[in-house]
Amino acid sequence: MTDPRPPAPPADPGRRELLRQAALLTATAAGFGGGLTLLTRSAGSGAGPAAAPPVPEPAGRVIRPSGPYDTREPLTSYRDMTTYNNFYELGLGKGDPARNAGALVTRPWTVVVDGEVRKPVTLDVDTLTRWFPPEDRIYRMRCVEGWSMVMPWLGFSLGDLLRRVEPTGAARYVQFTAIHAPDKLPGQRPWVLDWPYTEGLRLDEALHPLTLLAVGLEGRTLLPQNGAPLRLVVPWKYGFKSIKAIVRITLTRTPPPTTWALAAPHEYGFYANVNPAVPHPRWSQATEQRIGESGRRPTLPFNGYAEQVAGLYAGMDLRRNF
Ligand SMILES: Nc1nc2c(c(=O)[nH]1)N[C@H]1C(S)=C(S)[C@@H](COP(=O)(O)O)O[C@H]1N2
Ligand SMILES: [Mo]
How many C-beta atoms surround the C-beta of residue 65 within 10 A? Predict the structure, then answer.
């Protein structure tokens, strides 16, 4: 049997190369001897033989599109969804997050919801799912690197949680913060990004019914490599907005900093709406590689969710606000 997975698209090495060079620069500036060896090893899959990631089993339950937002497109295989990942806290290679999954301890897990709200809460992730029972949502996922998947999440609308904590009249944005545990997470030991990973949405984007907090995938509890125990899913934006392993959700008056915009502001904006008409400075965004398919398919404006979300950006210049 041949591996059904196509080779990684050229955009992937592009972004990794940027990071490698940046990390190298930092290491050199700091005067570390042997920095290159260290960095090569931190790049994981690029560093010679390593154990293949374990292949997890999906839940036996068949998941069929049922809701108004579910795509009818065929699901990406559970194997690909759980072994081809971006989660830099667990390593830079696509197979690293699955290989290093054991480093992310997901229970117990506390989430703080605070900032511009009348009723801030600190609660256990399992309490959260008792408050908001998760449902299946089948969404397209488009990475800024040029590949895509169809993923059946288990989750609830972020808006349900936000309404529960009662945003004040001053709330305009929502900031998300991921776990920071450099003693445990192998990807947080070398400098790769400005940890912890942080993301943000405008409040109206956060309240849109498509915006999901996911706790599962294909009928199963989320695996660490997919951002367990709690991750954001914003299907009309590039994948990097969908922050994994969330520990804090803060409502703010001003736009929060976001990790990729901090790392390379000319390449990654705050909005990051999927837009085939606006190329990344180093590659086109007109087409994508659907993982498991051969050949490339056209990328759709707002990743195919224009009908639902284009109105959020009426009157905005989407080339400037990229
Ligand atoms: N905390 C954190 N969240 C993250 C990332 C990351 O490196 N760290 N990578 C992002 C990117 S680039 C993508 S494409 C998606 C991938 O999600 P998946 O592996 O579940 O498909 O997670 C996003 N969320
Ligand atoms: Mo991505």
Answer: 15
